[in-house]
## 1
Amino acid sequence: VGQLALTPPETDTTEEALARSIRGDQTAFAEIVRSHQARVFSLAYHFLHDRESAEELAQEVFLELYRNLPSIKSAAHLNFWLRKVTGHRCIDLSRRRKARPQLSLDDVPEPSAAAIESDPLLERTLHKMVASLPEKPRLVVILRYQEDLEPVEIAKVLNMPVNTVKSHLQRSLVILREKLSRCLGEVQA
Amino acid sequence: MNQLEEYLKKSLRPHEPSLDFTDRVLARIPARRAGKWKELLSFLRRPGVPLFAAGAGVACMLILGVFLIRQAEPEPALKQEHQVEQAPPGDVGSTQVTNAPSGTGKEPFMESARTAPPRPRRAHSRITRRERLAKEQLMIALQIASAKLNEAQRLIFDLPQEPARGR
């Protein structure tokens, strides 16, 4: 938990808002929601690849946070808690949706033009490729590249061995590289 | 970091949810109910009073309340027995005849016991009360019998000795 450090001013603001929220100040809780909503929503959105479901899930996470406010010890703990609960909720929702048809890598439309930096089409393609990964590797990739977490931190959030995290990460990168190279012709290793 | 990882970082950059996201979260917070519970908890959790002590206090109050309610409840059988006890005293002898278990006439206590629905023998005080009633009746019966015997003895000893009749 201690490794998930924030910049000091942000930490101070969050700590203060957290203390006021625990005392029942809803304005302070709204501040917390505003400062963390992008992170929570994006985790869900990248995982589910569905904006509406991601918003619904993010709202549920914040409602659960409201119920568990007294158990949150610090700003770092809040970040850890939000990542952990969002990740678990994403996996739960994904498992409940097993009956629904899932997006396959073959269904991803191939880009019609050559890839250039910050190409929205490439980003969209890659986003869909990530969404087509299996649940746990997908969450590992999202936590690694959206949240910029190290494998050790991911292991703590997902409560799994570090080596498993590393193996998920390597395997996912191989799959994505392979597929992307098929789409774009060449991606540097 | 290779090119793929850079692509991934760009692709997985954070997105903002809809503008009214925070308002919708706040609207879903059950404010009133939570407020009431918080008020109750804050009432119980005075400064310096641990939560388990407050809980123990509430539990004691509940137990005491249930006990008092049970004590205050009138029991039908007891009421009937009480009526028997409070019956207007008439002639001691006739009362005994009336209330005696072996009597053949009207017996209020026995009749009430006969007409009352069968109840499990769980109230120890109810049994003691019946026993006490029977004991009181027995004592009065013994007193009457004793008085009669004394009277008979007195008559026997007070009889003048009759001289033996000769032929």
Note: Chain B touches chain A at residues 2-5, 7-18, 21-22, 24-26, 28-29, 31, 38 (CB under 8 Å).
## 2
Amino acid sequence: MRERCGRAHAAALVLWLGLTLASTAVAGAQESAASGLIARARQHIEDINPDSAATLLQQALDPRVGATIAEKLRAYVLYGVTELTAGRADGARRAFREALALDPTLRVDSLAELHESLVSTFEQERTALGATARPVPGVLELRVLPAGARVAVNGVVWGDRRREVPPGIHRVEVTARGYLPYTDSIKVGPGATLVRDIALVRLEDARLSVASVPWGIVYLDSERIGETPLFEQKVPAGAYTLRVESPSRAQPFVQMVALVPGQATSVAVPGAPASPSPPPLARADSLFRALDFDSAVAAYRRVVWDSAAAGGAALRAAAATRAAMAFGAMAAGRKDAALADSARAYFGVAFRTEPRYEPDSGEIGPEMRSAMEAARARVLGLVVEAPPDTLLPATGGRLVVAVRPTHQATVEFRIAREDGETLWTEARDAAGETRFEWDYHLSDGALPAPGRYAASVTARDAQGEVSPVVERLFSVQREVVDTLPHPPAPPATDFLPETVRVPRAGPGVLLAGVAIGAGTLMLEGALGNSSLNSGRSSGTGSYLVAGSVTVAAVIGFLAGHRTRGVPGNVLHNAQVRAQYQLDRDATIAENARRRQNAGVRFRFDEAP
Amino acid sequence: MRSRALAASALFAAALLAVGSPCPAQTGGPRLSAAAVAYRAEQRMRHLGTIHEQSGTWFGAEAQARLGAVTLRVSGLAGTLTGDTSVTNPDRDVRVSAISIGIRPAMWLEVGADVAARRVASPASTVITRLFGGHVGLAVALGVDGLSGNATVVYYPAADVTGDESLALAASGELGFSYAPPRAPIVLRLAYRFERYDFSGSALGPARLEQVRAVVAGLGIRLRR
């Protein structure tokens, strides 16, 4: 059922469009089937071929052809001429009578060249009929809505709305773009004034969307409709010449379009290939160019709020700007204030994200750019410029970070450790670029420990607008300085022997051996019980051991060596060692001094 | 007697200190050594007014571990003393076990504690004596690397004797030399040892005096980690 209704509706639309186009053609070129037949018949008359002309005129007068009164008048007169040419005066008079019956005031003076007896025969017939030569004309006034509608009476376009007309029936056609055409036959009596109010029935508007890269101004016929992106702009239905002009385009884009009431028409202007979009934007951009703004906005929003989107702030600002453009186009097309608010909000998001963001000149038209600049002026953004790599001395330096609010605001600058502990903060009123200088020494004078830090900046203007917090991470490192290598230890060749070995052990060895030997012999007497040993000599074993020890001592004395100190060498060696120690201590002290004075390096991460 | 013995020992020690060179310091990780020893021993004993003599050969082993200034020694001996086959002087089996720990306050001096057990068994009786005492040792280098002269005196102020006997005096002394060649992991030892045990009388018998003198020879190996 729904499908059948749809087909019927479509057929009706096509029929209407055909009628519209046909009426436009008739009105504009005075062309119809009857007119064509009459024109061809006249050509035959001029070629003295009356029979062929008569045949064509009979066809033109056939009621199925639907000739107008004026056409019928012309056809009857010309038919009379063919009869005169063929020598049939009666036939001619009959034709003239038919014409005079339709318009008794009809004159044929302008056709006198077609036959020498035309005017006389025609006037004789008028006389025979007793008709008036110059009837009193009437007045026809057409009051038409809309005012700019095109009015044609008997095929003649009227620039005004009130004219004198001969009494009789007049065919009136009123057309206007976006309205149903009006056609009627109106009879005006002699000397009468007829006023007719005609209000055309308005058709539902068509919706037109146009996308182009670069942007362009859209014209329908010669009327400026807007600039691209144009989204579902409501325009009167009808046939138009669509023209898109762009400063970046040498030739305008021109295309005929038929805008159907209640229906949306999309036109994508093939133009200069757009620069390749970054991957996160590619899909959204393709939706944008395809005029699927709802889907494009959703895709852009994902890029805007995806903090991990590669490309950083510039990419997110571009996505927000394009989302704003889509919202703006939708707002204009749908006349929706909420969508306009969304457009403003997304321009604001773009400039909060990246105050310096500037879309391509070919991307955004003057109207949208105006809205964008208004948002830029309203949003409080911050541009923070930190030196990527700064090496400062251990004492006396200052780390300088430039901050530029987009307009007058109180800027607060804060430096904190990675764990959140604030090291330094300063607030200052700033209208343009202001420089925050951090004396990077802590309260106890120490340098900040190597590690990760964050510089965060925020601002608030007099209206209470708060900027987003711009945080820049940086690392602090101590400069790696060249240190002196430790002096090598003095080689062994620098030292002199502190002792010398001389042959023969000391005499103490000999005496010790003798003492142990003697002790062996005395052991039994010293430790034994006298009552048990009285009169008893030591055992032979004691002599064996005593002798052995003594012999061993003698051998040791003869074969052994002893060492003797060399004081001079000892002193020399001590001096060598002392000098080495002095050199080493000096190197250590110098290295410590260099490390102490090593500069502090501040490395800011790239801005997100 | 005792005062004379002490005086002699002191004089001997002083002489050694005056003329000898201390042994080289022992450094590095623990030193281990083990040696087989042989004693050619003669025992002389007076009991009930009669002096008896026995002799024999003992074999045994001793080991010592030295870590820094601390030395631990363990030794064991077994052997026989052969008498004259009479009832009053039978053959005896002797087993001696000893353990001592010493510390060296100086390179040449060692003092320490000793525990020894001495078992003397005869067909008539078995006497087990447990001795608790201390020692003082001296070591002097004799000119050649690894050659040193040694003197040690052990005194046992406390003892425990099986049966009804008790010890009035127990002491021993040993002098000799040892040689540990620098390029070989062996150690040679030769010493003369003298031991004295004075048993007090009891209700079962009169006092008994014993003394042992022996030539000690040892051959061992040194391990060093």
Note: The CA atoms of residues 245 and 252 of chain A lie 5 Å apart.
## 3
Amino acid sequence: MSRSTAIDGQNTVEHIRFSNQREQAESKSVLGFWIYLMTDCVLFASLFAVYAVLHKNVADGPSGPQIFSLPYILVETLVLLTSSFTSGLAMLAAHRGNVTKVLTWFSVTALLGASFLAMELTEFGKLVHEGHSWTQSGFLSSYFTLVGTHGLHITVGLLWIILLLAQVTRKGLNTSTMKRLTLFSIFWHFLDLIWIFIFTVVYLSSGVNL
Amino acid sequence: VIANMMSNILGKLSWQALPHDAITIGGASSIVIIALVFFAYLVYTKRLRWLYKEWLTSLDPKKIGVMYIAIALIMLLRGIGDVLLIRTQQATSVGVHHGILDANHFQQIFSAHGTIMIFFVAMGLMFGLINLILPLQIGARDVAFPFLNAISFWLFAMGMVLINLSLIVGEFSAAGWLSYPPLSELAYSPGVGVDYWIWALQIAGVGSLLSGVNFLTTIFTMRCPGMKLMRMPMFVWSVMGSMILVVFAFPILTVTLLLLSLDRTMGMHFFTATQGGNPMMYVNLIWAWGHPEVYILILPAFGVFSEIVATFSRKRLFGYTSMVVAIMAITVLSFVVWLHHFFTMGAGANVNGFFGIMTMIIAIPTGVKLFNWIFTMYRGRIDFKSPMLWFLGFAVLFTIGGMAGVLLAVPPIDFQLHNSLFLVAHFHMMIISGVLFGYFAGLSYWFPKIFGFTLNERLGRYAFWCWTSGFVLAFTPLYILGLMGATRRLDHYDSSLGWQPLFAVAGIGALLVTAGIGFQVLQFIVSILQRRDNAAAMADPWNGRTLEWSTASPVPVYNFAVIPVVTDRDAFWDMKKAPVADVSDYAAIELPKNSPYGMFVGLFAFIFGFGVIWHIWLLLPLGLLGVIGTLIVRSMDDETEYSISAKEVQRLEKLAPKRVLRKHYA
């Protein structure tokens, strides 16, 4: 839709110059965003390192295997992975200029993201309710902080996609909204990747005696 | 009920938080009075609006750079004030005498001194110069993300406000400039001091992190046509190394400060001595950031020296490629030496051996750079202007300090000298002669570029000689005292040790350094008064070699009327050798509009930080929603740029005639 508007627009030198500038701006944003993601990656790497150091420091609290329910986490993981898939579908639709599908698939992504967050918060709530809060041991402090930081990123992602959905509804797909959708989808896949590491390092390896 | 409500609103805040002893009251009231006088001056001269419109809301990196440097220089005054108190205390607190400060106050002062000098002086000068010069040197009109740049600046500024607020409301950390736990944990530091430290650094640190992303993107995407990587000026290379380090190191600081704050406010156990916490993990994490931080500060200073040595020797920089390799080698190596800050942790001989050797290896690329500078001077026509003097002072003093560093890199020697004044002398020698002299040199070198007139040379020389002689006098005794067994952070010692004369000499050195700063202040005042005499009639007072000198001084808002095209290193030098007739096919230029939102983001971050420090929980959602809301409002704005028409560019260019004729422009 907006693609055709862009092509039908005045094809003057001014216009080409303008779109060149826009393209340059877009490549800047994408590179800048990748560099930002790299910093986020280091941030999570530090939290993983902290978890690795502290995960056996259970003090008088429970250890990982005593509190984690792997089937529950598996469902949680599948929900998040599916949301990454639907965000991919939304981006495919965006490149074809199909606004309805973009809105639909990103709404599904947001819903799945929200369900993931709800499951995580339920798990946290259950632990705190059983008396195993972050104040109990070094292990629990690092567990809540690592998983919670990921959850916080998911929350930011949800706010962002809701905002983008509103913008796309209002303005359609133009260079500015396309750029933002692209950045969001990179962000969302990144969170997916981080979660795979959390799933492996925190939950799966708690079953193995390392 | 009322008491409960008040505690919700005020948190831990009460009248007790205001200062009570003479020295703190003096410091606090002088800050308040200076601020009020400055404000009154602005009101009186009707400049508030001007300040807001021209400066505070500006997205122009040249103006943001000047604001960074202004803050850094003011903080330098505060930092040197702390020095004088520390030196007075150590020179007088002997035997039955107990000096002018009590132990707790002394600890707060040296903690504040280190924190302010590193985060708000050195970092401020660095980001200031990068903002001013980097876009010009790569032939760009702006940085990659101008609005993000404003956010970075305002986070830096608000961190600075928080740390100075601690002097007026509450107290500062007494746990040293890196706040090692378990001392910095709630059990041993129950006051708000450590929280002030955490949040001042956290807010400023996130700003630095965003700057790293911004400048790295700028270097990678905004170089002018023809400027390949191996044609970039050496300052740009050094900034690239430094910003790579920022991007990889600052997230570790963010995490470390966050975890310490979670320990203190949420009762977690990351670094506590109980419940499975691990204090040494903090020391590892903070130095995994902290050692790269040293190189973050010094690499751009090396870049400044490379520009200055080439310019004032009238020669190409010797060994460009080896210089690039050396910068990148330092960038990589600086991540594998952090453990030398705590060999005494007891990681074992093999681990200590590895980190010791890595530390010694880092001296090699640094040596390569030094020899490159010396070979650049060799057979050059050297002009001993004050930027060059700062370089020569650096070359001598940095080498001596560096050799002390290689000594300390040997673990058995480090076991003897750990935590001693020998170490204090070593790192001051590196940071002052390396970082500070580098940025002073850069400041006097690029000052005419920024303001259109040169600084007074005679006063600059006085400042240089006071600084260097005071510096030698202040730190040589500390090496000796360290070898005699004096530990750092002493607020009192026994008279039978015989240390007092050496501490007195160090005190005299500090006074000389203060005189040097006095001359620098005087230099600014005199130079501003004589600005017509010192006006850089030509845009290029030093016969420069790189692109920043090819445009007018002061630099027009758009930097370059026509984006230059580069065919070799030292692009401007080539242009000067082959001048050709003028062309004037200007095009319209798009630039970012001013925006107050960066300042709002900073203010809300400040509110958030203040809320955590004083446990005023109501401020947290306010600060957080404020930041998010401001960013959303800004993202709704599609009209963020304005255009300068081709005619207007032509008019402005006629006002500022240039000698460079423009065959080489696209």
Note: The two ends of chain B are 73 Å apart (CA to CA).
